[in-house]
Amino acid sequence: MSHKEDLLAGAVACLREKGYAHTTARDIVAASGTNLASIGYHYGSTKALLNAAVLKALDDFGAQMAQAIGADAAGGGTTLERFERFWTRIFDSFRTTRQVWLATFDIFTVAQRDPQVHAAVADGIEDARTFWARALYGIDPADQQQARAVGSLHQALVSGVLVQWLIDPERAPSPADLAAAMAAIAGQLTADGT
pTM for this structure? Predict the structure, then answer.
């Protein structure tokens, strides 16, 4: 790997261990086996490197979820069963990569001041919308209006449940709770004839 790749890998490792706010340039250098000057040379600043690391960590998570959901689709079951299995994986990720999930809130703040980060985060959210709609519900991305609506609802669920889990994991909804709620909403919509 190049110094640039080593730095990024080291920054991602630090995010997982220490979180965004507590990672220093020296931590990254120690984790990557590089030197302080290489941060400025390749990324311009420690902050820029950490922003890239958060985006990389989220991309890695997205790839892991895509693989897991792809395996799930082959495993069959109802949409509700796939939904609950997906949420089980999300909660597992919350537990194992808590610092990375916490760092997403830092990156949202950074995105308000940095147009490049803002664009990358916005594109990532848009990609996630399409992904959720297609992978979980089989909605063709060509049906942009439906895919965007369903994907936006799911993206809002991920963000909202993450906040609940980070603040109060004991009382946050479980995957079974979320599936039961989805079934209740669907049942109510059916009863209303909508």
Answer: 0.75
pLDDT tens figures, 39-53:
999 999 998 999 888
Q: Are 156 and 134 in contact (CB under 8 A)?
A: no
What is each CA distance from 97 to 81, 117, 158, 162, in whole angstroms? 24, 21, 15, 12
Give how far Cα 132 sits from Cα of 41, 69, 78, 185, Å: 37, 10, 16, 19
Domain 54-192, CATH among 1.10.357, 1.25.40, 1.10.10, 3.30.70: 1.10.357
Amino acid identity at 8: L
Q: Domain limits of the chain?
A: 54-192
Secondary structure of residue 168 in the 3-state scheme: coil
